[in-house]
Here is the input.
Amino acid sequence: MTILALETSCDETAVAIVREGNSGSASELLASEVASQIAAHEKYGGIVPEIASRNHLIYASRLLNRAAGLAKINLSEMDAFAATSGPGLASSLMIGASIAKGLAIGFGKPYLAINHLEGHLLSPFFGSGQEKNQIRPNVSLIVSGGHTMLVQVQALNEYTLIGRTVDDAAGEAFDKVAKLLGLGYPGGPEIEGHARGGDFNRFDLPRSMPDSENFSFSGLKTAVRYLLPKIAGPFCEPRTPSGLTQTPYKLDRQVLADVCASFQQAIIDVLVCKTIAAAKKYRFNLVTVSGGVSCNQELRKQLEEACTREGFEFKNAEPWLCTDNAAMIAFTALLRLQAGFQSDVTEEIDPNLALAK
Ligand code: KG4
Ligand code: ZN
Here is the structure.
């Protein structure tokens, strides 16, 4: 069984082809192509939906051909077509879903509408090892630019929400603080890079909602905003035309490293603490983490150490599978097709699609 999936939920266009392995359980990646639109939106200071849609259309057709060429397979040989149907930007989701539906109708094959968050959630199980493809019960932390949530995973399609952010997502906090510091986008890798030589104990930043299963990161971002004028030198010139971005503060190199390390550690402490508490409370032996922020090496390391200390098994996706991609969508579609799920081509995209109640 071979599946082609498109992912166009935001500003990344992605196409991937995944094949069921010989054993019927392992799955094999034949192609995974991603085209970023960061440069096209940078000068506007945020994503412009119409530009995103127009670019998705251009990139998707190129990536479809490139993925099929790399996989050495014709589109007519696919067993099903899938696309992200939410959550995300409506006009972006519509492009990928329409293309996948068109292919499914044209070739007379099944169509699968996939929840982007389920793609992230299952990504730690994607791989060539046999045990990789078995979705085992776990507590899952999804940390991305748009979402931060803890989920109980009983089995495929059986998810219960434990907690979620009540304001900013963790990745959004990384991006906003990076902007305050005059660093580039996406902010996560920038802050991680600068944090390497920093002292994470130097600045005392808040760990919000310690007794809740939900998360909050906007207070942390505000704390950094108030801290900067106290420790910064004179203002820098804005990097882009006025009004489009905040004026970044000029910090000494070591101070910048210390702010980045202190901020990053505040986020990690909250993520690790709540994940471990959830695994204990709901009695899971396995902890998984996914989403763009889980590329962060310090988070991966500290979460793994905490799991080992508490006697939990820990699984994370390879870094290339953590940020938005279509391989996780194709993998999820493959598991769902194997389990007998299919979608109707009349199924609409849903910008607010929920993963679990
Ligand atoms: O999963 P993703 O690609 O897109 C969403 O579904 O949102 O996540 C993107 C987010 C961005 O906010 C980015 O800053 C963050 O993931 N990110 C990181 C790192 N790499 C990406 N955050 C912290 N450390 C990183 N190394
Ligand atoms: Zn994502």
Notes: Confidence is low (pLDDT under 50) at residues 237-245. The longest helix spans residues 253-281. The chain has two domains: 2-126+319-338, 158-316. Residues 149 and 164 are 4 Å apart (CA to CA).
